[in-house]
Amino acid sequence: NAGVTQTPKFQVLKTGQSMTLQCAQDMNHNSMYWYRQDPGMGLRLIYYSASEGTTDKGEVPNGYNVSRLNKREFSLRLESAAPSQTSVYFCASNPMGDAYLSNYGYTFGSGTRLTVV
Amino acid sequence: KQEVTQIPAALSVPEGENLVLNCSFTDSAIYNLQWFRQDPGKGLTSLLLIQSSQREQTSGRLNASLDKSSGRSTLYIAASQPGDSATYLCAVSPPSKSTFGDGTTLTVKP
């Protein structure tokens, strides 16, 4: 099925460890996003990529890096994990950037549940 | 800065009741507004998207309206069912990225 695929679905890290969350979409969307969702905090944008080759900081970028590897893939890296990064991470894509396709809005992945101990 | 508010934070209704969920936003210069459903432990599923030039969209028992001038959108659910129990979020988009509300958690009691 077409959509946004995130891996892994679950991960437990020790403080100071690093890891990369992977995201791929097969809808030929221009824009991709990484959000974190925490109880009582809603969805907060970490980084986004409006188009292949560009990335920009969102609301809460500290402690993260991203790579837009190609049009399909957008990865999120935690260089030195901290307990404050325990969260559910969602990748999303959106055709916005191409006005013709902007009727279709966001498509979300199923999330990565990360615990940092 | 765009701010999106969803009130109430939680709502409990008996099965069969019609209900309205609210979404308010502070900046009317939006591109579109999207309603999502999130089940516990799951991702967001898109329900309806309304372009800024549209007034409403319908899908089955769902009807979403948009009033840009007043900064409001409503999601109407007809004849609610226990399977409608979930958190409903709205997101408003400028051309670059969206601002999400915190959601309304709906419980439909059998």
Task: Produce a short descriptive summary.
The complex is a heterodimer of chains A (117) and B (110). Chain A has 117 residues and is mostly beta strands.
Structure description:
The complex is a heterodimer of chains A (117) and B (110). Chain A is 0% helix and 50% strand. By secondary structure, chain A is mainly beta. In chain A, strands 2, 4, 5, 6, 9, 10 and 11 form a 7-stranded mixed β-sheet that branches. A 4-stranded antiparallel β-sheet of chain A has the order 1-3-8-7, with no helix packed on it. The model of chain A has no long low-confidence stretch (mean pLDDT 90). With 110 residues, chain B is mainly beta. Chain B has strands spanning 4-5, 10-14, 19-25, 32-38, 44-51, 56-59, 62-67, 72-77, 86-93, 99-100, 104-109. In chain B, strand 6 (56-59) and strand 7 (62-67) form a beta hairpin. Classes of the chains: A mainly beta (117), B mainly beta (110). The interface between A and B is medium-sized, with 22 and 22 residues.
What would the average pLDDT of chain A be, to the nearest integer?
90
Oligomer: heterodimer
Output the helix-strand order of chain A. Answer: EEEEEEEEEEE
- Structural class, judged by helices and strands of chain B? mainly beta
Content of β-strand of chain A: over 45%
Q: Cα-atom Rg of chain A, whole angstroms?
A: 14 Å
Taken in chain order, the helices and strands of chain B follow as EEEEEEEEEEE
Name the shape of chain A in a single word: globular
Q: Which SSEs are present, and which pair or pack?
A:
The complex is a heterodimer of chains A (117) and B (110).
Chain A: E1 4-7, E2 10-13, E3 19-25, E4 31-38, E5 42-49, E6 56-57, E7 64-68, E8 74-78, E9 87-94, E10 107-108, E11 112-116
Parallel strand pairs in A: 2-11
Antiparallel strand pairs in A: 1-3, 3-8, 4-5, 4-9, 5-6, 7-8, 9-10, 9-11
Chain B: E1 4-5, E2 10-14, E3 19-25, E4 32-38, E5 44-51, E6 56-59, E7 62-67, E8 72-77, E9 86-93, E10 99-100, E11 104-109
Parallel strand pairs in B: 2-11
Antiparallel strand pairs in B: 1-3, 3-8, 4-5, 4-9, 6-7, 7-8, 9-10, 9-11
